[in-house]
Amino acid sequence: MRLFYWITAAGTVLVAWGSGSEAHAQNTAVLRGTVADSVSGRPLSGVSVRLAGRSEATVADELGRFRLAVPAGTYVVRASGLGLAARQQTATVAAGETAALSLRLPTAALALSEVTVAQPYDPNQSLAVISNIDKLLRPVNSAQDLLPLVPGLVIAQHAGGGKAEQIFVRGFDADHGTDFNVSVDGLPVNMVSHAHGQGYADFHFVIPETVDQLRVYKGPYTARFGDFATAGAGEFTTKTRLDQSQVKLEVGQFDTRRAVALLNLLPVRAAGQRAAAAYVAGEYMFTNSYFDAKQDFRRFNGLAKYTGQLSDRSSLMVLGSQFGSKWDASGQIPERGVDDGTISRFGSIDPTEGGSTSRTNATAVLTTDLPHNAVLRQQAYYTRYDFNLYSNFTFFLNDPVNGDGIRQTDARNLYGYTGTYSRDLQLGSRTLRTVAGLGTRLDDTHIALRNSAQRAVLDTIRSGRVYEQNFNGYLEGTLGLTDRLTLNAALRADYFRFAFREDRVAADSVSGRAGKGRVSPKLNLYYDVNPAVQLFVRSGFGFHSNDARAVVTNATANVLPRAIGYEVGGTFKPAPALVVNAALWALHLQDELVYVGDEGVVESAGRTRRLGFDLSARYQLTRLLFADVDLNLSRGRLVDEPEGANRIPLAPSLTSVGGLTLRAPGGLGASLRYRHIDSRAANEDNSVRAKGYFLLDAVLSYTKSRFQVGASVENLLNVEWNQAQFDTTTRLRNEAAPVSELHFTPGTPFYAKLNASVFF
């Protein structure tokens, strides 16, 4: 608890220090205003607001509001965004006064020549320019398309769409999220001490049509991310308001049906009235998928969101959502079973796999403007989560009679609070942006691992209740040392309390408590050579937590393995219509932990080292045609193992996605996209290799003011490919001895869908 008290004291000191800086405040003026669509009056979030000829800049919040602290004087305030025509306004403001501005931006043709690469408001979001372009260009057809919006991230599904995806990013097989932090509207997606995998990130509770923005942070360089943010983090936000209501229907092969409805609940307010917006959204999906055994996959999503101003200085966001799904799965299959004709590529050894899951979310965010150019943001959230999964990874290896089926369950209540106090201070002619953050998260969950056969429980391997709480705090400052050089430095501290109480009372039962703290410094430098070139050098410490059961049952377990990362790179515009982001990076892990779900244990792979190169390019070929490519190279090795036995299983060395996108003014849109991942070692000595693939997907749409029709095709060339792949030792029913070889889930064959939407 000493660390938590230190965090609290540090935050209090920063708030008191900022509140006491009266001398600076007396010489400071404030530019406040709103940015909105010129036709509808709808507030525009994420729009860049800059001062001409100066370094001060910010972005409009979810209500279209912006605020800049500046010395007294006359300024030209310019607002701009992709797909919007820039507008500017001149304002004169005296010391201690506030000037109010209103900027109205009309829509315009998308032109990459308008893009500037510097991001002074949030310098750690070095991929902001790329993500803003992708938001307008990359098609999103399902929840599985959302995570791959992160440049360089590739996913694999191995339960017919029901389970969280396997994530590959920056040379990691991050399992279901162990080394990549995911959040939606501030709600954490990763689950600690989960029944199936540490950091388990099931993203299927998000309706794709409601997603508005994605902020991507590669590496452990950003202070507000703690657990799991070693390879990076992705922050998704849903729309504050709808441009118009929508009903969408989708049908496709393999008995696929999907219906979506998004309904506005409040009209757009007239000028001068307080902004408020509310909408509801719902999604239903059914598919039998492409496996020999029908998957009977069903999913329902519901969302309600309200955002409004309570006063001139405060706003409130309230969100509630409900998700539920159930499915059957064909599971991973052995290569020998396909080769000898026992099953087809789309068959199964144990057709009783499958499961169900549900999630209920509730969150509220209160944002308050305080005196002295300060903003207090507070978020409280609650999640109820239930998970029930039947799997069989080894078939008849351990139990020749009943088989090796297991049942994993997780019944969880998740509570959390996050608060940030941010303030801009004037240090002479320079602005120091300071942020103090405090938070806590409590996971109260009952988890169980049981043997099963035909979905009937045979006996319990382990079951009990986990209590895991994280207290965290950080201090961060961003200072423009010169008009071109920006320094970002931060210190984050985390303290974890773990407790596990086993249900059974026996001689071999294991229960206990443990605690561990971790301090993570960050230091980043950004240099704007000119409006077309920004260079950066970044470094930071991070960590991922161990499973609570492993922590309390093993005194030698590594509780919070440290990650150390650093990189050098930049964002460039070598030509007016070409935007390039590149980074040369390294990441060292103190201990690579692998959760073995069918045994309920954590295995340590020891120290690892990864070196890599990321390249993202976006190019406007013509007024209507755009090209994009992400290329990601990495080399990962186990540090303490000898050469020839030091491969990191399933760590990709090359991934790439990209494509061509057509945006015609009459409403016609089309996209041809590719996905590629290389063949890679499936075990430490590279004797078994996971097979790479190259796939083409296509999307076609026609959009008018009142309707949209479209079609999409996955795996246009009908390539045979493997999604999830593992080197596993298994035994089939009639085999005398076990066999270790590649096991896989087959990838989607040619898969066509049609959709139609009505707007009103």
Descriptive key words:
single chain; 5 helices; Maltoporin, Chain A; 22-stranded antiparallel β-barrel; mainly beta; 2 domains; disordered N terminus; four-stranded antiparallel sheet; 760 residues; 45 strands; Immunoglobulin-like
Describe what this molecule looks like in 3D.
By secondary structure, this protein is mainly beta. It folds into two domains: 1-108, Immunoglobulin-like (Sandwich); 200-204 and 214-759, TonB-dependent receptor, beta-barrel domain (Maltoporin, Chain A), CATH 2.40.170.20. It is built from five helices and 45 strands. The strands form nine sheets. It has a 22-stranded antiparallel beta barrel. Strands 3-2-5-6 form a four-stranded antiparallel beta sheet, with no helix packed on it. A hairpin with a 2-residue loop joins β20 and β21 (314-329). The protein starts with a helix and ends with a strand.
